[in-house]
Design a protein that fits this description.
By secondary structure, the chain is mainly alpha-helical. The chain has 25 helices and six strands. It has a two-stranded antiparallel sheet. β2 and β3 form a beta hairpin. α10 packs antiparallel against α11 and α21 packs antiparallel against α22. The longest helix has 28 residues. The protein is globular, with a radius of gyration of 27 Å. The N terminus and C terminus are likely disordered.
Length: 588
């Protein structure tokens, strides 16, 4: 094995600081870093991101903004026009030449008696009348036949409940990542993946059938746990079967189907204008992925780690044949010797460390921790906030989402080249600045002033492309800054900050109720502010990954002990059992 290959594989780093010595070497020496077998498996698993997009961003079509404000329901059996009813019953204020009606209250009048009199004298002394809350509403259904807003009256005092739906969904994804990550490390990758896909289908169909809002939230939470499980396990399998440069590219390219999923959902929503019909269709389509039980293999790396060598050898031999490689390295004697040697080397390599406490005890690590964790929070807030703000951007909702979704594909592809050409920190700063500036500029173009609101849509497209570069690059950059001894644990915490940002995102996107300028100003301003934190961090392009907290200090100070490595390739940190604690997903 050549020196370049050795340098790359030394970077397959583990959760507790040990190096994954023999199983990865054995697998990759037999099947190669990437071939036909890996291409088939990784492409199929990346398609799991399609239903992830459906359910993670589906709130845009489950609870879209109403085309016009609702009105309190007219008296039963009344033949009064809605315009007349609003004029005689709804309090209003006048802003310039525009009359703004209160959709949450009506005047306390005897409308039955007024109706019997032919609605005579209906406009006398309205402002002196007391008001009472509305009990039911009538909605503009010109865009959607039914949404969760119109079905469960999520307006007025209940407006924020649609945001609670999305917040709890993001919390469920976080929990799903953890639960299925632990489960996958104990019983393998394949069974938890299929279980998550099955639960995803069942919860999606059930949530589309229940008549109670509270039950809907609970089932959406279960759907989120399953979605988080599919994200975690599918990504883990992908990364455990590739090596070399592909361990840099796959975490990025793996995200492309996410945009395809969002795009296809917009097409389905165009024809299915009832939220239940859309949800049932998405649930049935997601059931197709359960067929992966017969297509996707168990991770040979995990099988080796738990001593199930016979099954591992069968999978590796099949993969080697499909890749056209010799299976000579697979003789069981050599494999057993390598495993024993690897275990012994791992024991020798163990050393005491300050652990996660070093994040706050050491000044340089404290700086890195604060800057990276907050950037993950801002990244989750910006990506999901911008994604959900699409419903309020103007123009045609369906076309806007299709264009925005497609724009993420070239950004993701470009990320692979940009981070290697211009460096990690520079790429993230530039991409986040572009996203923040584009989002802020939306304020300069009020809704309706231009044909199809093309300037606002164009700025959203630019912002989406920026996030499709910055978020994958941030994951790679974070992994290079944190040392081996705490890399997986710190990346897990960083991912949690990203999820917290995504949980806050729906509330940011709906700030428009209090001022049209608030969502873009808040999202763009926060993102730019977070970007300035990166100026306090060092560049890591071409630098050796730090193994200890002391190495990170040297990296931060740019000492010569951290040497340039011409053959440097990034790899996602893994443990000896092949566990990835978090996945570099903006669909988190």
């Amino acid at each position: 094995m050549n020196n370049s290959r050795t340098d790359v594989e030394k970077r397959d780093l583990c959760l507790d600081g040990q190096k994954d010595v023999s199983p990865p070497d054995t697998v990759l020496s037999a099947v190669g870093d990437f071939g036909r077998w890996q291409a088939l498996v990784t492409v199929l698993l990346s398609l799991v991101k399609i239903p992830v997009a459906w359910f993670q961003l589906g709130i845009v079509f489950l609870a879209p903004p109403l085309p016009s404000p609702p009105t309190c329901a007219r008296p039963s059996g009344s033949n009064i026009t809605q315009e007349l009813w609003r004029n005689i019953s709804h309090p209003f204020t006048q802003v310039g030449d525009t009359i703004v009606y209160n959709s949450c209250q009506i005047y306390d009048r005897n409308y039955s008696a007024i109706a019997a009199s032919g609605w005579n004298g209906t406009f006398k002394d309205l402002k002196s009348l007391p008001v009472i809350p509305c009990k039911s509403w009538e909605y503009d259904r010109s865009l959607f036949e039914e949404t969760i807003i119109t079905e469960w009256d999520l307006v007025c005092q209940r407006t924020q409940l649609s945001n609670v739906v999305q917040m709890t969904f993001m919390l469920g994804i976080l929990i799903g990542n953890v639960l299925f990550g632990v489960w996958a490390d104990r019983i393998g990758r394949k069974r938890p993946l299929i279980a998550a896909l099955a639960l995803q289908t069942i919860a999606a169909l059930a949530s589309a059938s229940v008549p109670w809002f509270e039950a809907f939230i609970i089932l959406r939470f279960l759907l989120a746990i399953a979605t988080g499980g599919t994200m975690m396990t599918s990504f883990v399998i992908c990364m455990e079967i590739v090596g070399g440069w592909w361990r840099t590219a796959i975490p990025i390219l793996y995200q492309i189907p996410f945009g395809m999923g969002n795009c296809s959902m917009a097409g389905l929503a165009y024809y299915l204008r009832h939220w239940r019909h859309l949800q049932i269709t998405l649930g049935m389509l997601s059931a197709l992925f359960i067929s992966y039980w017969w297509v996707i293999p168990e991770s040979p790396r995990w099988l080796l780690s738990v001593g199930r060598r016979k099954q591992a050898l069968e999978i590796i031999e099949n993969a080697a044949k499909k890749n056209g490689r010799s299976i000579e390295p697979l003789n069981e004697l050599r494999l057993e010797e390598q495993i024993k040697k690897g275990i012994e080397n791992n024991r020798i390599a163990e050393r005491k460390t300050e652990g996660v406490l070093g994040l706050i005890k050491r000044p340089h690590m404290r700086t890195i921790t604060i800057c990276i964790f907050f950037n993950w929070f801002f990244g989750g807030l910006a990506f999901f906030g911008l994604s959900q703000y699409l419903a309020y951007i103007g123009g045609n909702l369906f076309i806007t989402i299709v264009i925005s979704s497609l724009s993420s594909v070239p950004g993701t592809l470009a990320c692979v080249y940009i981070v290697e050409r211009f460096g990690r920190r520079t790429s993230i700063i530039a991409a986040q600045m572009v996203t923040g500036a584009a989002t802020l500029l939306i304020v300069a173009f009020p809704i309706g002033e231009y044909y199809a609101d093309w300037p606002r849509i164009s700025l959203v497209v630019i912002g989406t492309m920026g996030t499709s570069v910055s978020f994958p690059a941030l994951y790679l950059y974070s992994g290079e800054l944190f040392p081996t001894v705490i890399r997986n644990s710190t990346m897990g915490i960083a991912s949690m900050f990203g999820r917290l940002g995504s949980m806050a995102a729906p509330f940011m996107a709906t700030l428009g109720y209090y001022g049209e300028y608030l969502p873009p100003v808040t999202i763009g301003g926060v993102y730019i502010a977070g970007t300035f934190l990166l100026f306090f961090l060092p560049e890591t392009k071409g630098k050796q990954l730090p193994d200890s907290l002391q190495d990170t200090d040297e990296l931060f100070k740019n000492k010569t002990q951290i040497k340039e490595n011409a053959s440097h390739q990034l790899s996602v940190p893994i443990s000896p059992t092949g566990q990835f604690l978090v996945a570099p997903s903006v669909s988190q």
